[in-house]
Amino acid sequence: MAHSHPLSPTPTEGATQLPYVDGFVIPVPRDKIEAYRRIAAAAGKIWRDHGALEFRECVGEDLEVKDQRPFPHLAQTQKGETVVFSWIVYRSRAHRDAVNAKVMEDPRMQELMQEPMSFDCARMSYGGFQVIVDA
């Protein structure tokens, strides 16, 4: 019998399934933040229209921390760059997969993907995360 990790969410009778989150850490040139914001706002509307529960884009503001690994170090920012921290919330991983499939087929997204990118996609960090605490 397989055992789950002690921190893995386990459904209990009557419990609500915890959400699933796609997370992003993106180095973006400071002089392209407004272009990034404009495209992200349009993308956020598309994701929400297709069922995403939340769509958040945050630009680094207090990044000079001591005694921990600061986001600029993690994102390997270069001179003139800052960090954007983003997340999208879904009901579950299956819901995420369904929403993302619809988003990628949406003509509005196809149009947005023709816009010049305000950052280097190859330097973006991304992952899907199962929520373990929702307080």
Write up what this structure looks like.
There is one protein chain. This protein has 135 residues and is of the alpha+beta class. The protein has a single domain, classed as Alpha-Beta Plaits. The chain has four helices and four strands; from the N terminus they run βαβαβααβ. The protein has helices at residues 33-49, 71-74, 93-105, 107-112, and strands spanning 20-29, 54-59, 81-90, 125-130. Strands 2-3-1-4 form a four-stranded antiparallel sheet. The longest helix has 17 residues, at 33-49. The radius of gyration is 17 Å and the shape is flat. The chain starts with 19 loop residues before the first strand and ends in a 5-residue tail after the last strand.
Based on the model shown, name its key terms:
135 residues, alpha+beta, Alpha-Beta Plaits, four-stranded antiparallel beta sheet, 30% helix
